[in-house]
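Box 3.1 A note on notation
Throughout this textbook, protein chains are presented in two layers. The first layer is the amino acid sequence; the second is a token string describing backbone geometry. Keep the layers aligned when reading.
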Amino acid sequence: MSASPAEIIVHVFGRTDVGRTREHNEDSFVVADLTTMNATLQPEVREHRPGARGSLFMVADGMGGAAAGEIASQMATEVVLEELDASWRRSDQTDGDTFAGALRKAVEAANARIHRYAIDHPENRGMGTTTTIAGILGDTLYLCQVGDSRGYMVRNGVATQVTKDQSLVQRLIDAGELTAEEAEVSERRNIILQALGPEQVVKVDVTSQQLRRGDTLVLCSDGMSGQMRTDDIARIVTEQSPDLMGTCKALIDLANENGGPDNITVIAARFEGDGLQAAGDGDFVGHKPYVSSAEQRATMPVSSAELAAEEAKLMELSMVTTAENEIPSAEDVAAAAQSGPRETTPIAPPPASSLAPRLSVSQLRVIFGSLTVAVAAWLAWVYLLRR
């Protein structure tokens, strides 16, 4: 399938494996063309041109026991697709801000649905699922993260993690109390701080990344990322390119060779087409929180020219207001009285700034005291005259 100018082509494949220890597979994943709502791994989705509604890739790693984990991860993928179909695909807007907001709301809806299910089914109390969701719209990748499933970007043979684990060891790394190498062998590496389902409210980490021609995105559960290093992912993606089916198989095989203690799920997506720019040396790759256009405007610094223009407007407004509320002098009032009957147009009250300064309590006491003395003296003088 050849690309025409300004087109973006997505090549994608996904695969899941039970691993070598677990009896049941609690992972789920979905690959979908959101414009057609075709969520399969049929040829028309494995190689497609994203339409106005983009594409979706999602990995969910269930927890809480075999049945509960399977239910949670499957429910998460289903609810996210339902919500995007109901809100995003039927929306009049097709911009990035609306898309990012729809992804976040879909994840929050999945959390609410799983949480309610656990309440209604006490036997599944504690059920939940992690998730990493990638939404593609135009040349931008939007990621929603809850838990410790992961997303990696492989560009020019180098793999970089573009999500941040919501886990205890990641918190310790951020605080400088643990190195990344120590975290890989820590006994606390499986303790996560968030998942869909256990709590009524979940905080979704939304990030964004500019896509470049030739990029390969890898989403996976921790059953894969926990059994290999980032360099292993880069090597396999590079060696297997452009065979994404072979890429997924090789990544799962390596995780199993290293023990396969957990379910293993991986999605690999490669981006091509003239609609994407070639990668540059200065391009950022990594964890980058998404900031909407409205948030950017709210935090944008005001230039000196804009400040000067605003001050000029305020000065002009102040001069107009002063002229409209100017208090007439005694001479003006006398002249107006001689010229004829007064107009009935009411005079606006003077502004607060034109009033005389307020007198203090001590000043008022002096004034009233003087008046009292004067009145008393006048009364005494009148009394003497009458005698």
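Residues 320-328, 333-337, 339-359 have pLDDT under 50 and may be disordered. The longest strand covers residues 128-137.
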